[in-house]
Amino acid sequence: MALAGLNVIEFAGLAPGPFAGLILADNGASVTRIDRPFAASSDVLCRGKRSIVVDSKVPTGRKLLEDLICSADVLIDPFRPGVMEKLGLGPELFLGDAVRKGLNKRLIYARVVGFPRTGPHKDMAGHDINYLALSGVLAMMPGTSEKPTFPLNIVADFAGGGAMCALGILLALVERARTGHGQVINVDMVSGTRYVSSFPLIQSYLGTGMLGGPRGTNLLDGGAPFYTVYTCKDGGWMSVGCLEPQFFKSFINIFNKSLPEDFSPLHGWKPDASSQFQTDEWPRLAEYLKQGFLTQPRDFWADVYHGTDACTVPVLTPAEAGKQTSHIPARHPQVSAPNQTYPDSKDVALEPGMHTEEILFSSLISSLTSIKMASQQLKPFTREEVAKHNTPDDLWIIIDTKVYNISRFKAMHPGGLSVLLDDQIAGQDATEAFFSLHRYEVLEKPQYQRLVVGIIEGEKPAIHGRIAGELSKVPYAEPTWLTAGYHSPYYTENHRQFQKAIRKFFDEVVYYDSIDREADGKRPSQSVIDQMAALNMHAMRMGPGKHLQGRILMNGLVAPEQFDYFHELIITQEFARSSLRGYGDGLLGGKVIGLPPVLNFGSEELKAKVVPEVLAGKKFICLAISEAQAGSDVMGLQTTAVKSEDGKEWIINGSKKWITNGTFADYFTVGCKTEDGFTVILVERGPGVETKQIKTSYSTTAGTAYITFDDVRVPVGNTLGEEGGGIFVMLSNFNHERWVMCCASARSQRSIIEECLKWTTQRKVFGKPLHSQAVIRAKLAAMMSRAESIQSWLENITYQMCNMSYKQQAGKLAGPIALLKSYSTSCGQDTARDAVQVFGGRGITQSGMGKFIEHYHRTIPFDSLLGGAEDVLADLGVRQALRGMPKDARL
Ligand code: HEM
Description:
The protein is built from 33 helices and 24 strands. It is α/β, with parallel strands linked by helices and 891 residues long. The protein has a 6-stranded parallel beta sheet with strand order 3-2-1-4-5-6, sandwiched between helices. The chain has a 5-stranded mixed beta sheet with strand order 10-14-13-12-11. The structure holds protoporphyrin IX containing FE.
């Protein structure tokens, strides 16, 4: 759907705001309604929305709102002027102003009010009828000569308010795609009503016959007998709207023919086609039609006019209209949505707060404690009151304005008791001391959140943890295209939306599983694999191509034919950012390298069997090439495949080593020595196949295996590519595999830079931040330069890939990709070494502040081996270049 991936925050209101939100939700946006505690909602425009209850009056609730808005694309503010400002959530906070930087400069801040925001009525309460009245449009409405009637609350609330607001949001999205900046959209229903009424207003100013005369005498306000409603014999009504002469002709001819033979209410006078614009005859014509319609029931007239050009149809009740239109096929979601007859009460009611937990969870502000804190007032204390709790048995501290009672916890504190009893800590503000020794996530753990007993009066927490989907504000922590104020020629608005959705998904679904599996050494949870499959992420990780055809990618955020290598780069980089490294390989890294030979070289029959179940995350595949005796030297492999006597099967014998995902794979893409040379064959797990876990220096979550094949029989139909043509199968695979590794390597180096910048800022040495030391800054400079150069080179190569055929890529990019891979992994090792120096002992400690550095440093050598050893690849790149040397080159 057009707006899939768009994140909208809608403050609860009635009519225009919810309608704008509904239009966005009907078109795929994720709309979250913010409800107030204990406030019932009578809104019925809730289709497809979620609700969270937040008390904006307590500091934690306000902070929660701020966080939610920070990660939103659109905010719908339905309040009177000044309400959001009073909450401290005005547009300047997010979009910035002369003094503030702005927390979310891409935000579209849509505000709907009744009376114009700056006019004399701005502070008055009002409703649709009042806005319609002030717009000048109510005075033009049909009615009696004494007073106009009004069209329910449709024109001001929904057309001039809600729909105009949605239109403004869409226009702002278009502009944001061009400029990268959000903006404030101001809608007032008086001006909106005038805008949607442009046609009648202009006609009226021009004094045309359409609407120029007094009410009830014009073409469109019931004055013309051929543009009005008539009552029928059974009390039903018919609408007549035959303005043009040819339509009137058709209408009057059918009408006259359908009347009883003796019908003659006006002493024999009978209208014909020429009567239409004889205005002095209009009273007679009106009477004639009125009497005529009364001769038959509504459905008679409906049948008579059905299928004609008389512009005459029955007036249906809402229920009849629902039935009548529900058969219309849904060409587009927004066309079908209004036709629904609302059979399900969930479409018209949204219980306030029914998604509170879900939303908090998905925002990683999810513990029950946070919910409580957001909806309940924490007890306020002064700093003087806290200072009195400074003895071992009554010990409180302040961290980021929150008051912790650590009297019982102190004995269990992993950092010991004495540090907590220090005069500078006990009863004092320990924020700085705490953050120089702990990661924020310590405070997010439920066992420590329970220690919070209050908050410092009048102060607001300033530090927050990881927020799902958020971009880091730390310099160099994001590539330039994701850094505010920078530009890139490579990424479109679709790539940006895609990145946002992917990051949110990985932050919410993958990050915690990665930490847990790294701790217990088990392979990634099947629930994560299934959630990825539901978004077709396993298919997208295979890159652009035919395998995406017919699939709905990321809930329709990107069309299969639109998906390019930059989308794939985004997935790989976001993946590298939010998962630990062994886990990243465990999460079907084997498929990324093992499935392409099947996709590109397998028979149709084999593909039909294997590809769907692998891309659905139901079966697993790995690439089994390297052996104890041969690695980069694939021609030296010793695993053999010989044909059975009847020539129908391969019989495979040998062993494979360091095979990622091998322990749990169902299929193995195996490199074998055959009579004709090197052949790649797909082997299904079965008799004769054995896999054993290898304990490597990185992680058991990757399922790295030692595999033995003993007389394993495989149909010859499982041959991938030509017999003896294995090297071509592998060569075409290598490019993509190595490029994927470069994407991941570039991104994980940034995460290390982010860790180092944070640490060197908060860690104090000789009373100053660690980065005040020139040697530390030199290391940071080297890390930043490496990460930037890899990303720039990578994006250039990715751009080439987007513009080359697979064959051209194999010819022109094998060398550059090999060089980039070799360069990236060598930079990664330099960065790991530098980071350990920056973190000192913590850089080799598996818990606490340096745990990610320890992990990176321990696992980085793997990068330089996987997909071809560093030196071998560098040499390959040079040899490729030499092959292209002009024959007549001279110095
Ligand atoms: C609510 C308050 C606190 C909690 C829940 C807490 C929790 C922890 C935890 C879980 C660790 C283990 C390392 C880690 O995972 O980061 C730790 C270590 C430590 N904590 Fe605390 N702590 C608190 C307050 C403090 C304060 C106020 C100090 C004062 C200086 C302190 C000093 C230390 C030290 C020195 C270590 C050892 C750090 C290292 O070896 O790198 N802690 N604490």
